[in-house]
Design goal:
heterodimer, A: about 290 residues, mainly alpha, MetI-like fold, two-stranded antiparallel ribbon, 12 helices, B: about 270 residues
């Protein structure tokens, strides 16, 4: 923040439409979940108040601890790969011309495929006998089988996520780069700044706002990843690719434990909230 | 010399991006028997049977139309609502602004499954079930916060002196906002519109729950390809190829806004 923004309470009027459109549909579900999480639902009209019982049961569940650990490692890997790669790509996309258009359209393609189809395509694509990736790897002598080796499955899900979502980081960063006024570069050229100095002191600070949203988006979306690994590996082999949302679905749908599932939804939400909050403040204060 | 190395990265990444997409196109041109039977670098024959299925079955092409209608509706609504809010957040400080800004994003932190039942009850109560508007409104829960955040980032990159100069020059707020300010953040609006389009386009759970016949989305039709007879890989792949088309058109049309933005505008 360079200088303090003027105080203007009337700015609330600008925000009001957003509040109405979001709060309307966000508060009701939240209330429902809180309601379920403290009750034992026995039947449509029968419910017993159980207080914190579900929370205690959930937090002691070793399955949850395993899923949470896998989730944290996965999300950390996603961020460590996708953010630098996305920025690097954004820097290499031509600034204008037909090449830029072509690259942008090609890059965006993975984003536009419905998630269940992404999983299905990779399911075939990574198969050793009939899929391009699996076939090439097998031919190269790599012992690769994502449906049997836990490590292969995990890496496949990660590579699929990188394939699917790095374009989001790249497109956002690219747009932010294009929004930097030319005089900034001219000034740097006069000063004889190196390519790295231009990146570090002009491009990166100007991208900060957009990068924050890219980071937060990837953090929360990778934390809630469900459809793609579910279709690709079904969470297996074993529990190698069972992440948090899959655990939640097993609870809510598989075992039909509405109370514990609701309690876990809230805990889940709080974990994401905490991580995003820490990251957000880190990004805000880092300059 | 350095330029060449950066081209290499981009080229390598594009190969990585296109390989699974090539495989999808490849699958869409083959029969189920061939897909699960043998490996082939190129499809043995060009068969458009899978595409023919989609274009001749109203359930498929209506799905496309429905998806496009609610996605476009959602994109317009989300961006329109988010623009003034993002301006307020980037230019003024007001009571609770920081909390509000962060709270907005928390609406994206809930797994969509949590919204299902309450949304179903809500839209049934107000008589919007199975309409395009219902899906468009439901998708605003995750698109409006995103739009506000992205737009705020772009608006904050525009020096505040520009606003002040405009007021001194005698511009009223609406004229300044529409004529001067919006063109300056074209890049941001283009990107925001694309992302709203994209997230609404690939969302399946809410869209499927809130519709039954009249507004049924394409992604829901796709889940039909899993049947008792096994997986219809070819048709699914063909439908997948076709789902890329509208979004690719959108990004093609907004690419100028993304690429030009501020740098080419007046400063």
């Amino acid at each position: 923040m360079s200088s303090a923004k003027p105080v203007n309470q009337r700015a609330w009027w600008f925000v009001l439409p957003v509040l109405i459109s979001v709060a309307f549909s966000a508060l009701v579900p939240l209330m429902t979940i809180v309601n379920y999480s403290v009750q034992d639902i026995l039947g449509p009209d029968q419910a017993v108040f159980v207080g914190m019982e579900w929370y205690q049961e959930i937090l002691r569940d070793p399955d949850l601890h395993g899923a949470l650990y896998r989730q944290l490692v996965f999300t950390a890997a996603v961020l460590a790969l996708e953010i630098p790669l996305g920025i690097a790509l954004a820097l290499t996309i031509p600034a204008r011309g037909w090449r830029a258009s072509l690259v942008l359209v090609l890059l965006a393609m993975p984003l536009l495929i419905p998630w269940n189809v992404v999983g299905t395509i990779w399911q075939i694509f990574a198969r050793g006998d009939i899929g391009l990736l699996g076939y090439v790897l097998t031919r190269l002598g790599v012992d690769y089988n994502y449906s049997q080796h836990p490590m292969d499955a995990w890496v496949t899900v990660l590579v699929m996520d990188v394939w699917h979502w790095t374009p989001l980081v790249a497109l956002l960063s690219y747009a932010a780069l294009r929004a930097i006024p030319e005089p900034f570069y001219q000034a740097a050229r006069i000063d004889g700044a190196s390519r790295w100095a231009v990146f570090r002191h002009i491009e990166l600070p100007k991208m900060r706002g957009v990068l924050t949203i890219a980071l937060l988006l990837r953090l929360m979306d990778s934390f809630m990843i469900y459809t793609e690994p579910f279709v690709l590996t079904g969470g297996g082999p074993g529990t190698a690719t069972t992440f948090l949302s899959q655990y939640l679905t097993q609870k809510a749908v598989g075992q039909f434990d509405l109370g514990p599932a609701a309690a876990f939804s809230l805990v889940y939400f709080l974990i994401i909230l905490l991580l995003c909050f820490v990251l957000y403040n880190f990004m805000k204060d880092s300059r | 010399m350095k330029r060449q190395r950066s081209w290499l990265l981009l080229a390598a990444y594009l190969v990585f991006t296109l390989a699974p997409i090539y495989w999808m196109v490849h699958m869409s041109l083959r029969s189920n028997l061939a897909i699960t039977g043998t490996f082939a670098w190129l499809p043995e024959s060009l068969s458009f049977a899978n595409y023919a299925t989609i274009f001749t079955d109203p359930a498929w092409y209506d799905g496309y139309l429905n998806s496009i209608i609610y996605v476009v509706l959602n994109t317009i609504l989300s961006v329109a609502v988010a623009l003034p809010a993002a301006y307020a957040f980037s230019r003024y400080s007001f009571l609770g602004d920081k909390h509000l800004f962060f709270w907005l994003l928390t609406n994206r932190m809930t797994p969509p499954a949590v919204f299902l039942l309450p949304f179903f009850q809500l839209y049934t109560a107000i008589g919007l079930m199975d309409t395009h508007l219902a899906v468009a409104l439901a998708h605003m829960v995750f698109n409006v916060p995103l739009a506000v955040w992205i737009l705020e980032g772009f608006m904050s990159a525009v020096p505040r002196e520009i606003d002040e100069t405009a007021y001194i020059d005698g511009y009223g707020f609406p004229r300044f906002f529409l004529r001067l300010f919006l063109p300056l953040i074209k890049a941001g609006i283009g990107v925001t519109a694309f992302f709203c389009f994209m997230f609404s386009w690939v969302e399946l759970l809410l869209a499927r729950t809130l519709t039954s016949v009249d507004a049924k989305p394409i992604a829901a039709t796709m889940t039909r390809t899993v049947s008792a007879a096994g997986m219809d890989w070819g048709t699914l792949a063909a439908a997948g190829v076709l789902t890329i088309v509208p979004g690719a058109l959108v990004i093609y049309f907004v690419r100028h806004y993304i690429a030009k933005g501020f740098a080419m505008g007046r400063v």
